[in-house]
Structure formats: C-alpha cells, structure tokens
C-alpha cells in the first residue's frame, strides 16, 4: 500500500501562495529532519509536503493522517543554515531507498510500507509509474536546514535543496515578523475573510429558507434535546457569540441563588430570611452587587479625583465584577491605591452551600496611607453569616476605622463611644461576649484548610458530599477569618515588603490568616519550560535513554504544577469549610489566575462542561487581565495607550530599566495552567465533558494569533483596539465544533464520550431549582427545590508526585519516534455518533449559547459606535507617530546573528557582520550590499 501526503486543510479565506508535494528524489523535495540524542550525528529524515499561506505553514509528513500547521506568529525564532555532513548523508540514503522502491513498483513488485508517493496524488501514481530519476548533469544542489523554534515546546527542521523554495520560505517568515501594529495581526484578516464567506452562505441559505421551514417540524422530532433546539441554535452559526460566552450577570446569578429565574430582592429583610426565601443555600443576591467601573459618580470626590476614574485607575480589571453590597465606590477608590496595579479584591466565586467566597487581587502596598480602606474591603469578604443588616449599603459619610481596637471590638462596645470612628455593623461579631480573642479564628482557619499535606484525597471518580451543610456554614461564620492564599514564597513576599509591597500582616489585617504556597514566578516557570523544551528536543527517536526521568525532575515543571494544584485544593477545602479565601501573588494576573481558575474547576461541575470551561478561561484569564500578548510573545503597539493611576504606579514595586520602556517578559503561564488541568482530568476522566484534545488545541491557539481571544493584555484593551468587534473568538469555533460532534456530523475530538453526565446534572440541577428526577424546572415558587439540602460535587485531586505525569500526548506529538515506529496498518479509531447527555442537560448547555448570542446582538451597536470614535483623528495621529518611530516594529522579533541572512554562511571567529537598518537582519561582508528582503517581496 503506497503512502501519500496528507491533504492541506485550509481556514476560511486562506489561500496557498506555494505548495510542494514532490517526492524525495525531486529537485524541490522537502523533508523533516530529527536529531536523535544530544549530538547531531544521528538523524532521521522523513519526506514531507509543504504549503505556504498568508497565515501559516502546512507541513505534511509522508504517511501521516493530518498536516502539522505552524502559524507564523507561533514561531519564536528561525534560522537557515547549510546542512551538516550527517544530514546530507542521511538525505542521500533516503533518496536512494526511494529510487529502489520506485523501481520495484515500476517492475510490478509489491510496494512496501516505505514507498514514496508521486508528485500529486495516488491516482496519478496508478496512471504513470514512477521511473528512476536521471542523475543531475550539474553537481548535486546544496542542502539547507530551516530551523523553526515554536513558542511551544516543538522544534521543526526542514531540509530544503531548492533555493527558490528557500527564498519563498524566507520571505514569508520575514514579512510576518515585520508586523508593526495590533491591527496587522492575522486575527483581523481571518475574521474579515470569515465574514465574507458567511455572507455568501447566508445568501444561499435565503434561497432555501422556505424548504427548510417546511421540513423543520419533521427534523425537530429527531433532533437531540427539546423540540426548539433547531430554532434556538440557529443564531450560533452566524453570530460570533464566543465573545459573550462569559457574562458577569449570568455567571454570578447562577452562583448566588438556587433559581436565577426568580426576581432578586434589593434589600434583605428579616421576614424574607425567616421565611427561607433568602440566605445560605437559597439566595445570596441581596448581599452582593456588581460593581460597574464605567459608571460616573458625579457627586463623589476624593483627593481631587472623580469617581469615574475608577475604570482608568484599574485598566487591567473587567468593567464589571462582584463585591459585597456594603463596599461602595468611595471605599473601592481608596482601596485601589493600596493594591499593586489597583487590583483590589474582587469576588470570583461564591459557595452557595456555605456562603464562603473566593476572591482575587494583587499584593497589598503596605506603605500606602489607604491601607485601612483595603482592610475594610478584605473584611467584607469574611463569611460572618448572612444577616439582614449585612446587605445594607455602606454609608458614604461614615468615617473608616483604622485602629486595631475598632477592628476587633464587639458590637456593644462600638455604641459606647461616639467619638471613635466605627466600621459598618456587618464587620462586627454577633457574639454577646467577646470571649475567645483573636486566636480562635486563626485556629479555626488552620483546621479548615489543614494544608495540602494533611488533606485526605478521595480516589479517582469519588465525590465529596456534605451531609450537614448548615453546620458547615455555621462553622465558617464562627471562624470570622479570611484565609489569604499567597502564591509566592514567604521570603519573596517579605522581600517585596521592603520595596513597598508585602502581604496581609499588621494591625489592619488581624482577621487574616496567610498561607504561602511557594509557587515560582514567571521567570521560574520560563526557566522550567526551557529545560522541558530542551529535553523534548534532545530525546528523539526510540533509543534507550537513561537520563530522561532525571532531567524531567530537574526541570521543576511538574513541581511547579504540584504547588499550583496544592494551592487550588487548599482554597477549595477552605470554601467547603465555610472560610472565605483571598488568592493573590504579586500583580495578580499570572499565578493568581491559575489558582482561582483551578479552584473553581474543582468546586463547580458547571465549569467542567465545555461551555463552562470556556466561560472559566474567559473570566479568570481574559477578563481579569492576564497578559496574553506579553506572555505569549506577540506584544505590539496599538492605537491606544493605557496607563494606571499615578498614585498607584509610583507605589508599585515593579522595577523598569533606565530607558523608560517596560521590559516584556514572556512566560508559558497559560500552557502551565492547561497542563495542571490535564493532571486533574487524568485523575477524574469521567467528570469532564471535554477531552485533553481541547486543552492541547488551546495551548496551540494561544500562540497563533488567528483568534482575538488571546490578543492584547486585558478586556479594556481588546475593546478599545477593536479586537472584540473585528476578530473571531476561539470559543465560537470550539462550541460550534462541539455541537457538530454531538450531532454526529464529525468525529469526536473535544467531546468526552465517557463523561458521567448523570452525576454532574444531579448537582447542576440543584442550582436551577430542578430535581434530577423531575421532568422540568420548578416555575414560580422555588420553595420545594430550596427545601432539600444543597450538596456540592467537589474534586480533590491527589497532588502527590507519584500522581503527576509527563503529558506525553502533547509534548511528544512531533517526536521522531512517531515516524521510526510508523506502521500504515495501525490506525487510531475515530468515533462518529450522536451524543446526548439527556434532554434537560442538553437544553441547559444550549441555553448558555443562546444567551451568549442574544448578548452579542445587544453589544454590537455599542462596539460599532466605539470603533467609530477610536478610528477618528486621535487614532490617526497615534498611528502616524508610531510609524515614524524607530521602535514601531515588533520588539519581540529575534533575528539570526549566527548565519548570514543572504548566503547562509555561518559567522566565524574572525568574520565581520553588518546589521541592516531596514530589515534588521545580519549579513556577512560579502553580502552587506543588497536589496532588502522586505522591499523585494
């Protein structure tokens, strides 16, 4: 059976500028080369096809089922050098084997598994037998090795002998890395081409609309779910709803009450609490409110600043986030000056069963004069029990207490001295006597979290169910303590205190119990990733290597994942015990996002569905300001300039270099998080609706810049740069692919057919006023659903080193042993079937998509209006200024300083090299006079 090259699968609007499908013995042949071991003497050559488009490079290894897609933006460094003697020898030997195999096929012999396919297709091979190639009259052309180091762990080496093809590859790489603006990224052109294709499809569908309406009633009877599925999901194929898959209103309404369809009470009353309508396990919406930073507070002045500066004072935060209701805007504005980057504590998750909250922030600025305001915000997070007076908004005119006595005094003592400034009533203990002091909350918190070492972990597939939820909530309310999960090592936090930062300590934070989890910062993760990348590149092939596990241990990649998981487990246990938890690191956008997202993944089965996981990443990473552009290495100037408030910036502990330009630090933080999710998935494979294929896909997409989801450094920047309007969200394609897989239209890839949907729905249905055995949700009252005790479906993975593994399917995906042990008769099975989790569960997941489509339609007019404003004269001046600047080109592009850009001759010890001022490439003394490549192509 003759092998063939895989087909090129193109995106919408993607066109091929050049493609090569030649056999290995042709002049324009291309092959992949792999070096086995540390030395580059032993190598493997695999013939492949090659295609170059405007977005990415398609590499099709011979005999493989699919091409390797390498987006140009995902390439960190690249270089071209002459092939070594070992590569030339191996390439020549493969050519000779191909000639001999082709001769046997032409003579009528049976083709072996190593037979080389002809130029175009298998049909052409049957029509014209392959003949032995004629020897070149001129000398054998020189071989070149094109090395493509991706921002992921993989490294691709292409052997090219055609200089014409080599120049084309070089031109595509050069032009891509000369992108100077955010608007020049491929995500914008991909979205434009997709819109054009969508318009063409809509025109064709309009002609067939009448026929579809006639057949609609018959099709609804056979569709999965309820009879309205076909109509309700029609908008998802034309709307880019992925941008609205996360909505703060929808997400927190689901968390805060049993039945979000019931109207929320503005103020908690004694009658409603005693009647069982509101409270823990029922409805907590009266105690929380969404803070909109875009609202103007015209009547509020503080230090000469208007309250409408909240949005510009914290540009890395979402415009809407959750806080307790008695934290007003004045208090929030003052607290911003006491946190690094103005990232005040914001609620990410509320445990409805116990009333405890999971919050996130950056480190406190311990030298700030507004530390008392930050202490008030932190104390508002403490699970003090949900009494009616806790829901009252804080009076703006009441002074703030900053003394230790006012912080810890009981309620009765507060009413005695009128001259002493007092805190709001919700911040005091309800105990009649003040017995116990401050040690009881501290010990209660320690017993609640117990640390990751003493925690007992259930076996894989088990769940943690509380039989007495009321007792757990009362225990958390008695503790009166806030667990602070500081992701940093304690010495690092203490060192930051010398620079103005620090952690929650001192008289203002007596109610806080701080635990340090020793998670490395971005530099430690980058160092571990470089070791992992070198290890993957070194151990190629199927030779016996004895040092792989030792090098894996020395890389510390799994050790850092272990500490992240330990922090997430401790936070989940804290919320289950009724103790609120505040997670932060230094700036609160790297390690904090990892830990809070993992904690929510462990606590809530909703986030373990595909649509829920998309919501989780969009919320904790994209919305809360994880710096995707900088961490993924595609930071580019835009048409807007976002700066923090001067008071916060001057107090920040981050140091910049003397040139005034901030240093851009790349680090695979999101890949690290994805690997941590995989470790949890591996222990509980039936508790997730998605497979590791979705995680691997996201780890690729974050570097490709083909979607706008991971472009820019925050929600505000994406909106102002037009990314949210003019690009496509990756969640749109993921959820569309998911629906097609469930309908049986394509093979299962993202959908986990082993998913235990019945168990998950039994817990998710509680939050919707439903019963797992009932046929429909409760309608008006909601009392029957609230009568039953609320249970949680919590995963507590074992974080022991023996349970953490190397993700072989991802990191060795491009390893040479896949070709050395290739057998064309062994194929991975593909499953295509209709998947349903039950009518109610399917309808619940589809309702999330419907809501996202509706919100996208409502948001579009405001985005269009904003684009008209930002595309005016101010944007034109900013673009002109950036175009004339010498640093307008991408600062992250790395140029090859080892080999000449024109003749590929390596620079020796005594060689002289010159860097072109136009294209920034290096040339030898023989090629220093040239026409710039950027002008030629």
Automatic annotation (TrEMBL):
Biased composition (Polar residues): 638-658
Active site (UniProt): 585
Pfam families per the UniProt record, alphabetical: Myotub-related (PF06602)
Record field: compositional bias (Low complexity): 205-221
Residues annotated as domain Myotubularin phosphatase: 242-811
Gene Ontology CC annotations of this record: cytoplasm
Region called Disordered, residue ranges: 199-226, 408-469, 637-662
Positions with a binding annotation for substrate: 521-522, 585-591
Organism of origin: Novymonas esmeraldas
Full protein name: Zinc-binding phosphatase
